[in-house]
Specification:
The chain is mainly α and about 80 residues long. It is about 75% helix and about 0% strand. It is built from four helices and no strands. The N and C termini lie far apart (about 50 Å).
Length: about 80
Amino acid sequence: MNMATPTEIVSAAMALTTHQRCEVVQQLLLSLESPETDNDVDQAWAIEIERRGIAIREVRTTLRDWDEVLASIRGSVSSRNSA
């Protein structure tokens, strides 16, 4: 049996509707999950959340409003696109 290559699979997937492609993506992402990776990810996030909490309490980081951050990102992207 001849297996399709990843390029062939992506090409075929691109012919699907947006909804169908979303279903394929969801199924592929779910196939990557496992109890081992879930635990690793959960543990890594717990460590990161604790690290960020400490940084905020110790005033070692600057908190910014989401709208301010988004405007900054959009400005940066716009500058790159016009260059």
